[in-house]
UniProtKB/TrEMBL annotation:
Name under which the protein is recorded: Uncharacterized protein
Top-level taxon: Eukaryota
Natural source organism: Mythimna loreyi
Amino acid sequence: MLSTWKKEQEEHLAKLSHEQNTRFSKLVSDIAELKLQNVAIQKSNAEIEKSITFVTEQYDDMFRKIEVLQKESQQQKDHIIDLEMKIRDIQQLTRSSCIEIRNVPAVENESAADLTAIISKVGAAVDLTLCNSELRITYRLRGKPGTVRPIIAEFINVQIKNKLITSVRNFNKTHLNEGRLNTKCIGMPGDRRPVFVAEYLPISSRKLFYEAREFAKQKEFKFCWTVNGNIFLRKTEGAKPVLVRSEQTLRNLKLDINQ
């Protein structure tokens, strides 16, 4: 019995030893495989770090290039704005003695003499005598059929133009509502129409003047006007006038108001 028990124990121990050896071998194999995986992961991480470093350097380089391009773009915009203002000034100088009269219907077979007569009647309506010799040229701007095209009148000097504009403004101040300058005042047939007299502005200045008037409405500026081609804004009576040189002036004003 002892021999049999001893034999059984030896067989059992041998079996346990074999199982442990098998498990140990598998453990060693798994550890070796993990080591290989770890080496691969470390290698992969190194490649990733290298790629990240490369991408970061590329991003930094691109960011610097974008900053340079943005700076150059802003310089170009500033240069364009400067050129636009110079062109506007040149255009205004060539038309410094011109006025624009709007909302006066054309007569049948209208001639230059008819337009000259209308200018004289506008002057007479606001107590300003205008001689034909003081007018250099009169004509209507082109426009769509069926629309009332503005009349352009060029005087022999700026002083006469300014006198007429000032007289019209004073007349409108003393004659409110329907009494303001209109087609009845200058003897035009048909319904009463308000007549508007202002400096003639080139297209670029006209667009800027429109935007300035819209800005004045939105931000409750009481005055918006032009003098010798320059556009001005004034918040209230007695406030310092603001010279509107470009759209950037309006943007800066908007930022100052919103702050």
